[in-house]
Amino acid sequence: MRILVVEDEHRIANSIKKGLEQERYAVDVAYTGSDGYDLASTEDYDLILLDIMLPEMNGIEICKNLRKNKINIPILLLTAKGQTEDKVKGLDAGADDYMTKPFSFDELLARIRALTRRKGTVVNTILSVSDLSLDKKQYLVKRGNKEIKLSSKEFSLLEYLITNKNTIVTKDQIIAHIWDYDADILPNTIEVYIKNLRNKIDKPFKKPLINTVRGFGYRIGG
Ligand code: CA
Asked: How far does the centroid of ligand 1 lie from the alpha carbon of residue 146, in Å?
């Protein structure tokens, strides 16, 4: 999951980034409204955390413009105390939810989980395909009863594949959802990650789950 944080107060922005990275999200930060808008309209994010009072372009305008351009990434507004009017404006402009600063980090995480959950699915922290399961909250991967240890990026990669199970995902999509803007990851690197993941979740078992779709990308399915 990749999140864009648009917040002009560096201290707050950086502490959110750090906290989210510890939860294995890939995070980009924009410190001005126009940088935020540019990133939001060109990169592939799963969620935007958007402050309202920003230099150059405020959060409400960003919301409006993104929605006008049919960019439907979930938006969680961060508002300062006493900006009730702004909250209403923000929701009317197409934001999905808001939080008042200062907020508890646990609540922020819960709201992010709620907003990035696929619409219509029940609260489900365990994803599965065939006999492979991935527990997002416990950070646990199992095939049958056997526990499998993955690195943080391998975990994120597997999570992305299972979230899109039976669907082909391209290397570019994988890069866009798992690495942040500064990471500079090449498509070849994805092959290395897939190979390592296969060695752990497929090779020791009879039935391989990760399929390579030549010229397109990968698909996990059972
Ligand atoms: Ca601000």
From this structure: 47
